[in-house]
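Weekly puzzle thread! Below is a chain. First person to post its structure in token form gets bragging rights.
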Amino acid sequence: MAGTKTKRPEDIIFDDLAAPRLTRLQKLAINSSKNAKVTFTQGAVLTAAKEATGLSDFGPRPFYEALQVLLDDYASDDGLSGVGRQQCFKDLVRCASNHLIIHDRIKKTPELKTTKLTKPLSVSGLPRSGTTHLVNLLAADSRFHSLPLWVAQEPFHAPGMETASAGLKFSTRALTRFLKSGDSLKENDPRYLRCSARWSGMQIMGPDLAAMHPMNPDHIHEELELMTFDFGCNQFEWTSMVPGYRDYYFGKDQTPHYEYLKTVLKLLQIERTAKGDNPNKSWVLKCVQNPEQLPVLKKVFPDATAIITHRDPVAVIQSTATMIAYGHRILRNSVDPKWVLDYWTDRIEALLKVCVRDRKVWGPKQSMDVMFHEFMAGDMDTVQKIYDLHQLELTAKARQEMDDFIKAHPRGKYGRVRYNLKEHFGVAPEEIRERFKFYYDAFPVKIEV
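Winning reply:
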């Protein structure tokens, strides 16, 4: 197994981050992809996207520069394993394919210009700070539009590709039964099935990943995925080490990418309204990038209600670094936990400094800070405060829908990870904590580590 289990079966301890104990399937995947030929060029990515969709018009969006920065990062990274190289290339092709499909939709949707988004409810916060549980809880209220992962990763079909093949149906359902992942066995949409297949692959390659961040198709996800199709967001940092792209992202105004996001949400809303949804139904959204983009979020979604979660940054870094380092056992030729920890300590420090600086952009009538420890102690109390701020009644039906979600998704459902910063990364919590005095002074988070 990838992690050592304690006497309690729900506990997972990653004491092998630096020297992974690989499963038989992990070894097989790594060995079979050692000699994989991956060409990190724009021509290779864009041609593959055209072949996958049957489309060729990428439109006027100037994403080629950002794509090239990513390609340069991947091509120069000698540490990527064959699996990692293949995965990076597939993700780029999926993003470019979605860009083609979305541009085709834009051309065919004249009502896009007059479509409005009604007062979104936006959850922003540090990774690992409760945003996922909160947005899934809020999205249980059927009065909201939300983004299940399978829609976030592929919002629309390519023309003429609406039907799943028999082979895709069989293989996906076989994996679902084998892994007992809980994915739907009745869903026939090829986008859902491809998402399920990706999640099955992730579970095989990282058996304990679900305990940290489940990626089931029905799991409500963040709109950051939609911005990857425009190659403008920090999502790419989560899937690989891309310092060149990180610096490129820091130097760019992200407004055009948030406008692109807004366009895609409108397209989804138009499609759902055509199928009978309330045209005034609002979105519940979630994004871990927003804390460093609060002015842009305000500019593009001026009437939104902004909920910003906060947690002890040392606990966030400990959890984030563990999850990323765990994934590296498959994606990289070797794992350097200290390198991962240093990268994400710097990254989260940069994010939080901007968050503290710009928090005032959102006033008290439209925003609320949520402390992780308070939310975990009483999630429905927090939900009530959010509904009061959003001026939406928390109805008996909505409460029941949320209660049903909580019962179906208890904490620790996939096991509990026991983190240890000192033992697993060689760094004492105090060494990191001293760098975040500015954040502790700004927000009353509870010190956890």
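Puzzle host: Confirmed. Bonus trivia for everyone else. Strands lie at 4-5, 11-13, 121-125, 144-145, 282-287, 305-310, 367-371, 416-417.
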